[in-house]
Design goal:
Distance between the termini: 62 Å
Number of strands: 7
Helix content: 25-40%
Number of helices: 8
Mean pLDDT: 90
Shape: globular
Bound molecules: zinc ion
Low-confidence stretches: none
CATH class of the largest domain: Alpha Beta
Strand order of the largest sheet: 5-2-3-6-7
Largest sheet: 5 strands, mixed
Radius of gyration: 21 Å
Number of domains: 3
Structural class: alpha+beta
Strand content: 15-25%
Length: 237
């Protein structure tokens, strides 16, 4: 291994061996529900983050041998930096969490409510490659209900972080439990990971399913009801 690469790999923040780094990427497992963030994560403004990432991404491109003065490439570091901060990873910053309007459950709806086929656009935190798929969310209302599109917005917010699918599932579940003041929530995500389909094993057809549930969804009959709704083909006609 070139000395410089070895220095980078062993430099302070990166204490894992190359083998450990590679196998962690395959595990797609996280041991905490919280996204690991630095204490000073948001001390820097978005504009300064974009400026800094732009600089570092240009260095990566140069290291790869690219001529960043070329007309076609000169704007790439800025585009990537802006895309990271404002689009792909906007969900890292708690100030971007969508405002969830909560309503009193006046009509006393007490059965399962399912919001399904919610688009998942996320990024794998081990390779920074896309995770694309769908989420299905169900809950049984108690005293509070949520605007339907707010569920989609919450899913979108948590997806727009470097993620592992298991954690994404749990973060959505936990937020909805707190927001709706009910234990009775289920979250299912089915997604394709480009780090599996476009590199490594290069399996184009496989996808990953994660299911997390609490409260009444621990009962098999309630889960069965949820899945019978989710699995039914949608037909408006
Ligand atoms: Zn990955």
């Amino acid at each position: 291994m070139p000395t410089r690469m070895l220095q980078t790999l062993t430099h302070g923040i990166m204490k894992m061996t190359r083998e450990e780094i590679e196998s962690t990427g395959d595990l797609h497992f996280s041991n905490t529900i919280e996204t690991p963030l630095r204490a000073d994560a948001f001390d820097t403004s978005d504009d300064d983050k974009i400026k800094n990432i732009q600089h570092h991404f240009a260095e990566i491109m140069k290291e790869l041998g690219l001529d960043v003065t070329d007309d076609s490439l000169s704007g790439t570091p800025y585009r990537v930096a802006k895309m990271y901060v404002k689009e792909l990873f906007y969900g890292l910053n708690p100030k971007n969490r969508p405002k969830t309007s909560i309503f009193e459950n006046k009509y006393q709806y007490k059965k399962i409510l399912v919001e399904q086929n919610i688009t998942i656009n996320s990024s794998c935190e081990h390779h920074f490659l896309p995770i694309v798929g769908t989420a299905h969310v169900g809950y049984i209302p108690k005293g509070r209900v949520i605007g339907l599109s707010k569920i989609n917005r919450l899913v979108d917010y948590y997806a727009h972080r470097p993620q592992v699918q298991e954690r994404l599932c749990l973060q959505i579940l936990k937020d909805l439990q707190q927001t709706l003041e009910t234990e009775d929530v289920i979250v299912v995500i089915q997604a394709k990971h480009l780090c599996v389909s476009s590199r490594g094993i290069k399996d184009k057809s496989s996808f990953t399913t994660t299911i997390e549930y609490r409260g009444k969804f621990m009962e098999p009959a309630t889960r069965k009801e949820f899945f019978s709704i989710v699995n039914k083909p949608f037909d408006v006609s």
